[in-house]
């Protein structure tokens, strides 16, 4: 699944790339223990000082015991204990071995006759020295082995934790960009090195690893080591680390790096599969949406067009009376106005689905918006009766006037379709000080809303089945568009049955305009913001 390395035997190929960048590196990273030269130098110095301290303390304690008249065996045990402590506290088995030989020499120099000399007078001492050295070496080896086992266990725990964090962070990601960012973050936190990820098969040095030229800085070359992350079917990207930092990683860390790259490749492969599935599902939904749209409007387009064609033929072939002629022309006007409204709704819904419907918000007089909507509806439906009580105070809203008029027209025409011919409807405009909203209320005197329809009223293509006194045509798009327009303005829409009498009531809240800035959704004041973007905020 991943390419093989020729240099280190790891399961992932990494290469060197060179790029000349002016400027200085400003990468701030947390050092990975054991991976930076400064840390290793300090570690070596500390281990050497610990070894000297252990031998010195053993010698001083031995001199104290010697002057107290204790036996040489006690002093030998002191040195063995010092070697064990030295092995436990230092890094590497070499310090314990060195301390073992040094302990024998120190015992011979300070505590055997002749004193302060390495010469040996007693023939038994070489055997004593041999046993002391072997004992110290065995104790040092056992301690070093236990320490190595503990270090291995800690490394395995850290490795397991690194794998867990990587897999946990990748779980649930649905976009490749999000997965790549999480991979970079996890590698940076695990190894303490600067990491960059380039999608595709190109190294990441082109993504701006170093800053640009600064005052008094010179140009220099920076090398990078790259790990290619590939799945079964394609290469997902290249993970790049500055070579200066990558060279400080030991073999175990490089193996962990390779294993985590394999895990990252599996995670990217899964994320890519999920992303493709979501795209396919979205395409299916869009295709289903288009089919519903075509099926919904096909009949509604054919019926008024047939009426217009028939009326035009009648006007051309006959000479009707003036009153009859005006009636026929009025019918053509009504059918044309209805078609225009249908096309406007379809275009608005299409733009909203594609995120291309822009808001051009500015201060608008709410009263004028209501009157414009009523005039539009009265032209299309001259027999309808719409009441509107002009508010006493001037109410200003921050809105796209054209879209608000379309919203109100849709609500009024929806009321006309579900209201008996001899009934009326009214529009109320008021201010909700608590929410700082202008509230538009459209009431009708129809049969009201069926409780089963309430949860679905604002779904596209939903027209309801019960208790409908449908005088006209409807595609189920109007209320869905109303909700999108209201939400795009940072407002809301809700529906309920009237409490005072039979009929339905729709309320729409639009933010008020105050001192040249909207109370809510100030970003709506910027032209070009799409309705779908605003609705998602």
UniProtKB/TrEMBL annotation:
GO cellular component: plasma membrane
Main localization of the protein described in the UniProt heading: membrane
Transmembrane segments: 45-66, 78-111, 123-142
Membrane-related topology note: Multi-pass membrane protein
Domain Histidine kinase: 296-514
Reactions catalysed, as given in the entry: ATP + protein L-histidine = ADP + protein N-phospho-L-histidine
Keywords assigned: ATP-binding, Kinase, Membrane, Nucleotide-binding, Phosphoprotein, Transferase, Transmembrane, Transmembrane helix, Two-component regulatory system
Protein name per Swiss-Prot or TrEMBL: histidine kinase
Source organism (scientific name): Faecalibaculum rodentium
Organism lineage: Bacteria, Bacillati, Bacillota, Erysipelotrichia, Erysipelotrichales
